[in-house]
Design brief:
By secondary structure, the chain is α/β, with parallel strands linked by helices. Helix content is 40%, strand content 12%. It has 15 helices and twelve strands.
Length: 434
Amino acid sequence: MKIAMPILDLPTESKMSGGYIVHAMANAYVRRGHYVCVFSPCAKPDNGLYDYRKVDAQKPLRTFRFAWNLRKIDFSGFDIIHAQGDDYWLWGKHFPFHIRTMHGSCLVEAFKISGVKNKLRMLLLYGSEILATLVADKTVCVSKNTIKYYPWLKTVIPNGVDVASFAAMQEQEQKSDSGNQNLETNRSVASQNNMIIDHCSLINEKYSMAKCPQPQSTQSAKSVDDSCPVSVTSSETISPNSSPSVSSVSSVAKSSIPTILFVGTYGNRKRGKLLIEIFARDILPKLPAAQLWMVCSDAPPAANVSVLGRISQQELINRYRRAWAFCLPSTYEGFGIPYIEAMAAGTAVVASPNVGAVEVTRNGQDGLVVADDKLGQTLLQVLTDETLRHKLEAAGLERVKDFDLNKVCEQYEEIYTGLIKKNNPSTDYADDAD
């Protein structure tokens, strides 16, 4: 199957979750035997297995320019357009079948964000979301709380996480003291990587199209400090259509000191500022050696707080693994990808009662969801109570099975196939993964 995936942001130039979702899903589809081309103004990540085409999107009104420029592209060579946003101009018989995924509601964000200009922009984007549901052949919401803002929609498919890239290799942990054994492991991983690259190259060669060239891309990667050694299993080392068992993931060596991880922004709805204040007020007086790792660029310096800025995906995964607790006290998440990333990494989750966190944790069964005035006390309890922490880690590892990326792809593939066969009953994609 030939799939076009337009997205405004990609991980090379933006922290927006949509770009990470598309990047991971596109790689998963290629491993599953499909041809994928991503259309974006951002550079292609170095580890992208898919084809790529650059789409112009200059400021001002970058979002709307990108949406309009998508309409100018000839998508006739594709079976499916799967968009995560900015697709509201893609109507007309000359476009292939069109799927849209809704990750939340800009209407809610309009009430959460500060500034009149920002609120107006969100309201305008909410209007574009409404239009997109009318333009697309099928619209899918990532959560039950998201579907509330589009009551005429019925289908929910959650966001997924590539479990393989977050799961620790038990063998690698056990052999960490043996240089020779580690060398053999690395050689094995490299061999598997080459096999996957060869497989994906054959797929893209089979579906190569002149209008979707392979450009050079760059991606900056920040090195990991000595206190956080990298021991990461690349998502590209698994075979197509395979997914590791989450329950077989071994416990990763955590940081030697109590550590909280935050992934988001200092201001606005992610509320990194609130977490820094709570850390200083409630955690440090009781645990003077504790650390707060902030994966953001806009936080000011503070005692025992490491502001990491933009980091590579590899380092992010390692931070997730080594942290004792993950906390994102956001006021609104349509879904909340970082929560399931933390679960996949075997790290306890603590969240504020936003609708995304409540749904992902099943109302606190798989992570702790507490009000602001209880957040500091709860984080302190997680850091000091090893039994509670391990219970939350185990619950998260079990829950994340529901968000396995391969399961998510399978659900979308059923939609793709259903739409295509409805129009052309003789179509058969059984041989596409050969």
